[in-house]
Amino acid sequence: MLVNRKNLAKTSSTPGKTQTINHFLINEKWFLVDLPGYGYASVAKGVKGKWGLMIERYLQERAHLMSTFVLLDPRVEPQVIDQEFIRWLGTEGIPFSIIFTKTDKLSRNQLHQAVQAWKEILLKEWEELPPIFMTSSQEHSGRKELLDYLEKALTQHNQ
Q1: Of 32, 67, 74, 79, which cross-links 24 as Cys (Cβ 3.0–4.6 Å)?
Q2: What is the pLDDT of residues 34-80, one digit of tens each?
């Protein structure tokens, strides 16, 4: 949705299909990097553990990392694993943003309640919230806001 190419990254109805770090060069300017998911993947715990180490090492050692997008499905109650990952990002000083996906699947009121639940959890440990975006690949909503955010980050990074 972000780069307006439906089949850029492979998706599946079965979580856990992305098992490697995939780099996509965008406009000859920057890389969009797809990391394996850590939550609902249908794989053995040992495989998830290896992904965790691979993801941690990548995020800690990436010299020019501008932002890590933490993708959250607002239809799912806040999960401990997501909270732990966000906490880890903060502890490591890794820049991140929260992106709520599939926002078209909820009513406006349900989406508001889901986002508020996350904000309340985060504000228990954080003085300031990271950037938060609402997106839907079906409706292409949130795309412009994300692209504007990335353009601003790229401009600041290149100064």
Answers
A1: 32
A2: 887 765 555 555 555 676 788 899 999 988 888 999 999 999 999 99
Percent composition of the chain: helix, strand, coil (DSSP 3-state, to 5): 40, 15, 45
Token look-up 């889901």 returns 114
Mean pLDDT of 111-122: 97
Q: How far apart are CA 2 and CA 141, in angstroms?
A: 10
- Assigned architecture for domain 22-157: 3-Layer(aba) Sandwich (3.40)
By the 10 Å C-beta count (0-12 exposed, 13-18 middle, 19+ buried), 45 is classed as exposed
Strands of 13-158 (E only): list them: 22-26, 30-34, 68-72, 96-100, 132-134
Residue with tokens 């997501």: 82
Q: What is the pTM of this model?
A: 0.85
Which pLDDT score, from 0 to 100, does residue 3 have? Answer: 81
In the three-class reduction of DSSP (H, G, I as helix; E, B as strand; rest coil), residue 21 is classed as: coil
The token pair at 109 is 């009121």
State the Cα–Cα distance between residues 55 and 48, nearest whole angstrom. 10
How far is Cα 11 from Cα 6, in angstroms, rounded to an integer? 10
* β-bridge partners, 102: none
Query: Mean pLDDT across the stretch 122-140?
Result: 94
